[in-house]
Amino acid sequence: MTINFKNLENELVKNSQIIDDFIEYNLPKAESLNNKLSQAIKYSLIGSGKKIRSYLVIESGKVISHLNNSNFDEKKNKELVVIASAIEAIHTYSLIHDDLPSMDDSDIRRGKKSTHIKFDEATAVLAGDALQSWGFELISNPKSLEDSRKISKAVFELSKAIGFSGMVGGQQGDIDFTHKDLNEDNIFWIQQKKTGALLECCVTLSCIICDATDSQLSKLREFSRFLGLAFQLKDDLLDLQSNLKSLGKPIHQDKLNETPNFVNLFGEKKSTKKMEYYLEESIKSLNIFGNHSKNLVLLAKYVVNRSF
Ligand code: GRG
C-alpha cells in the first residue's frame, strides 16, 4: 500500500520555516572581524536540510503533553523550539566537520558546496565549533528555559550524546574502522553512536521539558533507537540507489570508502529487510501512546520511504 506523505511533507516544511526563523533572529550578529564566520554559519544552517531532528523534538513534546493532559501552550512550544534549534545547530556542526578533507572529504552537502569548499577549511572548522557552542548557549540560557534543573539535565544529556561516548566517539570508530572489523556488532556500535545518539537525545530532551514519566521516556527512547537504525540503513541504501541530484551529495561513496555499514556487510536485499524490521519495531515502541503518536508513526514510515 502506498502511503501519502503530502501532509507530513507540508508539516516538515512548516517546521523548517519555524526553526530557520528562530535561528535567523537569534544567531549572534556579525561584528567586523568575524563576518566570514557568520556567513559560513548562516550558509550551512539556514534554508537547507530536512530538519527531521527538530520535528522529532517538537512532535515528541506534543505527544507527551497531550497524553498527560498538560497544556501544550505557547511557552512549552517556545521552549521546544529552542531545544530543536540547538540540536539542528549541533547536527549541522557534525555535518560540516564530517565533510572536511581529514574526514569524509566531501565537496557537496545538502545540494550545494560543502562549507569548506564554499569558504575555506579553517572557516569550516570554526563554523562547526561555533555552532556546537551556540547549541549549548541556547539550551543553557535561563531566559529561554526557566527551570534550572531541566536546563542542567538537558545540557548533561546533550553533552553525553554528542561527545566521547556518543557522536564524536562513533565518528572516531568510523574513521579507524578497517575491513577486518567488518561485523554486525561493530557496525551497530558505530551507527548507534554516530547517528543514533543525537536522534535519541531529541526525544530525551523533549521528555525532560514536558515532564514525561519514566516509562514514556523509555518507550520514546526505544522508538528513537530503532528509528535511528532504520534512518541510517535508508541513508546507506540511498547511497546505492539514488543519484547526486536527488540526494544532494555524491553517491556510491560507501562501497568506495569501505564504509562500516550494513549494506557493505549484508548487501542491498538483506539490508532492506533489516530496515523494514527496525521500522516495525520503532512503531511497536509507540503502542503505549495510542493515536497521540500518529505523526511519529508517519515520520518513521517517511524516513524509510524518503528519496533524499
Ligand atoms: C564530525 C563529530 C562529527 C560527527 C559526524 C553525523 C555524522 C557524525 C556524520 C555524518 C555521516 C552521515 C552521512 C551519517 C548518516 C546519517 C546522517 C547523520 C545523515 C544526515 O542527516 P539528515 O539526512 O541530513 O537528517 P539533513 O541534511 O537533512 O539535515
Describe the structure.
- It is a single chain.
- This protein is an all-alpha fold and 308 residues long.
- It has a single domain (6-305), classed as Orthogonal Bundle (Farnesyl Diphosphate Synthase), CATH 1.10.600.
- Helices cover 71% and strands 1% of the residues.
- The chain is built from 15 helices and two strands.
- It has helices at 6-26, 35-45, 52-67, 74-98, 115-118, 121-140, 148-162, 167-176, 184-209, 214-241, 244-247, 253-256, 262-266, 268-285, 294-305, and strands at residues 108-109, 112-113.
- Helix 2 (35-45) packs across helix 6.
- The mean pLDDT is 94.
- Bound molecules: geranylgeranyl diphosphate.
- Geranylgeranyl diphosphate is lined by residues 49-50, 52, 91, 94-95, 97-98, 103, 110, 167-168, 171, 194-195, 232, 235.
- Residues 49-50, 52, 91, 94-95, 97-98, 103, 110, 167-168, 171, 194-195, 232, 235 line the site of geranylgeranyl diphosphate (GRG).
